[in-house]
């Protein structure tokens, strides 16, 4: 898990952060 995090930390954050942000906003709207 740490190995994959090292190699694609930037890609993971770039993909995960916006997704969590949208999900969080959707919950707030509802």
Describe this structure in words.
- There is one protein chain.
- Helix content is 90%, strand content 0%.
- The chain has 30 residues and is mostly helical.
- It starts with a helix and ends with a helix.
- The model has no long low-confidence stretch (mean pLDDT 77).
- The chain has helices spanning 2-7, 9-29.
- The longest helix is centred in the middle third of the chain and has 21 residues, at 9-29.
- The radius of gyration is 12 Å and the shape is rod-shaped.
- It has one domain (1-30).
Helices and strands in order:
Layout: H1 2-7, H2 9-29
Would you summarize the structure shown here?
The protein is mainly α.
Task: Write out key terms for the chains shown.
30 residues; mainly alpha; rod-shaped
